[in-house]
Amino acid sequence: MMPSRSSTVWAGLTLEQPRVMGILNVTPDSFSDGGSRTGVDAAVAAGLAMAEAGADIVDVGGESTRPGAEVVSPETEQARVLPVIRALASAGLCLSVDTRNAATMRVALDAGAAIINDVSGLAYDPGSPGVVAGYGCPVVLMHMRGTPATMNVEAVYRDVVADVRTELMSRVDAALAAGIRPDRIAIDPGLGFAKDVPQSAAVLRGLGSLADLGYPVLVGLSRKRFIGALSEEARPGQRLGGSLAAGLFAILRGASILRVHDVRETVQAIRVWRALFE
Predict the structure, then answer these.
(1) Catalytic: which of 80, 195, 224, 239?
(2) 80: three-class secondary structure by DSSP
(3) pLDDT digits (tens, 9 = 90+) for 41-67
(4) What is the pTM (predicted TM-score) of this model?
(5) Distance in Å from the first CA to the final CA of the chain
(6) Is 259 among the residues known to form the active site?
(7) Residue among 98, 107, 37 at smallest CA distance from 259
(8) Domains of the chain
(9) What are residue 260's DSSP bridge partners?
(10) Which residue stretches of the chain are H helix?
(11) pLDDT band at 39 (very low <50, low <70, confident <90, very high)
(12) Is 224 considered catalytic here?
């Protein structure tokens, strides 16, 4: 029997089945695919291909948040993402924008993005909670400590699963206090962000404690360093098998949305997984 799943609707999507968010980085320095889609035409084609392959959401990002990444100005970020968002929105895709900057959130939503995906959980820019509340849009609150430049030194926990749960709930409480509706909120444990390999694996094993909070759980584990460590594969682009295995494990632990590079393969894996439970 298939594990019971939530009938919640988030961002217009029913979560009775696992959903897939495709990663569309229009950056020169993202850890796995940086530089491969920096041109508008290439990025738009990639986004359309993700939708054709079964992505429910395409997540457009213009700033790398890999460990040690340099800060990108909102102006540079916007120049990268806005033409892509406009083109994909006009084609009818459901888009999220991966940004920490309130100014970018605002113009991206105006350009056709529907969802804000913030690795800082709306903590980086003081203006960001007001933007999300004002637009009434769905938001993904991710757990991270520090910034991409400093987060590795912040990976000290008493109990990583309990601490991530507590700190995520503090971001949820701040969002609610800012006027963001609870049915607009999803949470992300931030695997690999201020978490070393054992800590990321522990959070993934303990994902049920986050799912029990009552908010949809999005998990981004595709090609990440802890997948490489567990699979003994140093090359990010060769971590498909490990990413699929960990993604299905996350679904079993209560994840509602997987954020992935390899959309077609993930959609196929989920379809087979679901069929085998029927």
Answers:
(1) 224
(2) helix
(3) 999 999 999 999 999 999 999 998 877
(4) 0.94
(5) 7
(6) yes
(7) 98
(8) 17-200 (3.20.20.20)
(9) 22
(10) 40-53, 74-90, 102-111, 128-135, 160-177, 197-205, 207-211, 225-231, 240-252, 263-277
(11) confident
(12) yes
